[in-house]
Amino acid sequence: MINLTLRFAAIAVVTVLSFAGIFAHQSEAADKRPNILFIIVDDQSPFDLKIYNPDSGLDTPNIDRLAAEGMVLDGAYHMGSFSGAVCTPSRHMVMCGRTVWHLPNWKGAIEAGLCPPNLEQSTMAAVFNKAGYATMRTCKRGNSYEGANKQFTVRHDATKRGGTDETGSVWHGDQVMNYLNDRQSNKDEKPFLIYFGFSHPHDTRDGTPDLLKKYGAVNHKDKVNLPPANAKQPALPVNYLPEHPFHHGHPGLRDEVAVSGVWEKRDERTIRNELGREFACDENIDIQVGRVLKQLEEMGELDNTYIVYTADHGMAIGRHGLQGKQNLYQHTWRVPYIVKGPGIKAGSRSTGNVYLLDSLSTICDLAGVEAPTSSEGTSFKPVLTGKKDAVRDTLFGTYSGGTKPGMRCVRQGDWKLIKYDVMDGKVRETQLFNLAENPHEFLAEHNRKSPLETNLATSPAHAKKLADMEALLLAEMRRLNDPYRLWNQPDDDLESPKPAPPRKRNPKKSK
Known about the structure:
The chain has 13 helices and 15 strands. By secondary structure, it is an alpha/beta fold. Helix 6 packs parallel to helix 9 (268-298).
């Protein structure tokens, strides 16, 4: 009887200890802070990807997997640029969460009190370093926020736009793989923030031979003769035009006149070949993303990692007769944005209405890290967790890297206004689109049959909507400390913009 009692007691003790171990393991797992993998590519329109454009011929199975296991945001935007190198203010905004005219690289912003000094100490890596995270970065060199980049504990930056493993996207993938392998070898238990940046698909879009062949493209270098036609090349974009109906406002703009393989040509063969080159670079990026996902899975870290996939801005490549990133059409103002991670419903989709500058506040919120007070971004964690569909109802965009005051746009609901005040007053244009009826922003030159698939700015039936959108744009410009005003706006006692002196451009210099 005593032996039986002792046996039951022993079983009870083992059971209690087993449950204690289970609960301790569960508690440890619950307390483990999530990792962050922030993937950013250079120059990618969301409409290159099947998740945004089902007619796209681009294969990106790993990006598709992120979308299938996470959330796709249909309304993600970069706020704009005061420089032809649009990536520069865009990447500043990602790093510090400040609006476009409040950035440290906007002239006089610090002196005017629009940007705090020593902001680099409140940027992405600095914030996560203080929170006890290990921080690592790989990306292109230049045209970014160097003060913020220096804060990463491990950094391997180089511009890699070639068509080999050493000169292309594989190099960036290798840096992340090596870092993860080192963590595994050293049994590093600290949560990590990895900023996984690529140099492609920014030009020069030198793809690898196998992927170029897949998309029927060549690394074209002949200014005189057209590239060969090939049935495998991607189709022309639905809103393709052989030229834009009026000047874009930035004379001598490198992206529009000096990109190797395109230059000023907008014929079908040139554009389809260039799209094939872009797709070859895009798919190579996808392959590198897949390598990293597999490694995280093998390390047991994938399920505890928030993964962001985005771009610094979109790209035209033949759409609306444009080539570059210095415009405010949806293909260029919008960016792809996918987030996968704990608590995010697989296969979900939301509007979002987010800016890239919201990224810092959001990843802080997801990780339980206090966002810096200097960040003007809004956390869209409530969108990612299904509590909201969007975090704002109005979106603003600007481009003033060429002649001043430049372009401005505003979107609210289905309606979008774009205004151009460029070429020293010689080009003043207004465009009004209903994006529900005209998502591709077709113009009269596209010859669409529907009366709503065009610019509605001169339509008497939409005069009231035009006036409302004009008022909304002015309100946003004032709210965001826009230093310029357009021709039909009150000057608000701002100094009139002076034409920039002409400067010599090096067509080989990469933006």
